[in-house]
Structures
1.
Amino acid sequence: MTQVVYKPTDIDFTKPGKHHYLVAFPLDSNWGNSLVPLTVINGLNGPSEKNVVAIGGTHGNEYEGQVSVKRLCRDLDPATMRGRVILIPQLSQSACVANRRESPLDGVNINRAFPGNPRGTISYRISNFVKTQILPQVHAVLDIHSGGNEAIFPLCASFHPIPDPQQRAETARVAQLFDTPFIMLYSSQMHSGLLTDEAEAMGKITIGGEFGFAESTHRKGTLHAYEGIRNVLRHYGLLPGDIVKIDPARPAAPRFVQAVNLEDYIPCPKDGVWEPTVDLGVDVRVGELLGRLHDFSDHSSEPVEIRAHRSGVVMMLHFAAQVKKGLTLYVIAQDVR
Ligand SMILES: [Zn+2]
């Protein structure tokens, strides 16, 4: 049974067992609501100090998080669990339905809307709900992303530079539970209003990540997201059992890389058709050819060669062939030492 709640404060976060809700956020322009799905599980084996929230669909056209968190809504059994797990498979529900990065209701990317505003448009009200009602209850925040239609990444869990050494060390430990080939330390300089930045600033153990691309449901990315969330629950004792090695075919531990300065997120120099010449996740030397930009207004013209501005590992490439001046064309990260 799924219960519609019209006031977020009507969700009973302490009720034992598993309870499914649709949290109603009134539309700005019509009679009706965006019904954001939310499941609360309170394990029957007692409480925990270290509760967890897992979120998918912060961006609507990224499906690995939506699918893995939805599956967990069914698969997790409170009879075997301790503590509290909150699952939100489609946070920006209207964006998910529309297969878009931002909500079509207000044109807002909810991952730039934090800490939100209780009197703002729908994306600001949903982010304010997360900020005030969800984040204070949990120790760990898992926000599952992928490249959408913008970018391709090698599978990676991610977090931002964290000044507090203890929080940094625990975050790194928890990120490894997703067993992705890479763990990426992102720059915090590019944007403001991110869910993960907000949670990190509140002292939460916060993991993001890129688990696929191309508005698809990446098989392996979904496996890492689903089993990685379960590993985090096992790590904090909310779910019984040992940590699972998610990709036994890759014996190496995740490789920690970082691109913490904006200088490593290279904007496209001009509009064109992008032809990458390297694979994701490979090591390149400074000056190595990464791709060509073609100008079809003159098919006899020389392409613009895009060469690595530094040595390191290719952690992101623009996805679509058609690329506009200023959009991020590639990211080169370096090993964390
Ligand atoms: Zn995203």
2.
Amino acid sequence: MIDLSLMKRVQVDPVARRAMVEPGSTLADFDAVAQTHGLATPLGINSTTGVAGLTLGGGFGWLSRKYGMTIDNLLSADVVTADGRQVRASEAENGDLFWGLRGGGGNFGIVTRFEFQLHPVGPNVLSGLIVFPFSQAKPVITQFARFTQTMPDELNVWMVTRKAPPLPFLPADVHGKEIVALAICYVGDPNEGKKLVEPLRGFGQPLGEHIGVQPFTAWQQAFDPLLTPGARNYWKSHNFSRLADGAIDAIVKYASKLPSPHCEIFVGTMGGQTARVAPEAMAYSSRDANYVMNVHGRWTEAADDERCVDWARAFFDASAPFALGSVYVNFLTGDEAGRIGAAYGVNYERLVAVKDRYDPHNLFRHNQNIKPSAQV
Ligand SMILES: Cc1cc2nc3c(=O)[nH]c(=O)nc-3n(C[C@H](O)[C@H](O)[C@H](O)COP(=O)(O)OP(=O)(O)OC[C@H]3O[C@@H](n4cnc5c(N)ncnc54)[C@H](O)[C@@H]3O)c2cc1C
């Protein structure tokens, strides 16, 4: 374990729109500095996540349809390699290492500084939630699947189904009951965004909504209370090019038997700029993943381990026939070493070659491991 959590400096050059970010920074640390200049780069949707691990696996969130994956905005990285050298990786220097770092995780060295491209964002954005009763799950998710295929890049809509937390804008008798929520973020003129999200309300009869113009940093923290540290977790994930009827049926079936109030199924919408990069351009290859689904098996008591893990696995199996077969490496669970090939697809062999060059003895192996050829 190499603890970099004290290295949290974030420096922004607002004229060049670039950020230098140390690897102990969380998304909250990064956004706080960049947003003082009305700038941001695509990161994830929980502000407590670390910039380093998220970036090295790929990274996506509300801004990704407009500005791409986090790695599409990585300009350079300073790296300490397995043999103790300090090197810079960019398009111009150590290009093979730079290629591997953009999706290949912590396999090649320790990143001590990231350099990112920034974009004008907010500082206020139209964002929020529309919540529907679970009895309308099938039509709501079906319409979500259609709507998200043609929406503009500035708009992102994700779907989550779970038991309702005690949100103040929901009637008290809904708290603790299954619901379907659409989470919305529009990165553009809020008045334009308001027109674009209007049809979403017609997907069913909403139980409540909380949509408005709020600081981007606040929206980045909106989901933090649902994913606090300390719970027991078992997550599984699929990539989809589209959400087929069978996938929607599986979501509705398994969301109707959530084994704990903390379990959820969410579908993050990708596409837009994330899909306009060639799969071989960098280690992350899933450019055809228009939807990334994550099953958050999450509970608090050890006695519930088997029940909750079984539920996540059964849903994963039921939805597999409709999925692409690839997977986002940052959503792999500890017991999924067998899916590393699926995570990298066409790029796997080239990643092994980069591993052979930078870490031939597999010093960096406590990760989603790309084995050097000597160890295969
Ligand atoms: C609550 C939650 C929400 C999430 N939401 C999203 C999301 O919206 N979008 C998304 O893309 N992902 C998301 N993820 C997945 C997330 O990208 C991964 O969990 C990622 O590994 C987190 O990185 P970290 O730095 O916080 O974790 P860490 O545990 O610190 O790092 C994970 C691994 O990354 C490698 N690593 C970390 N730092 C370095 C470094 N400096 N140099 C070399 N290797 C390093 C190591 O192998 C390490 O074991 C989420 C995860 C959680 C828990």
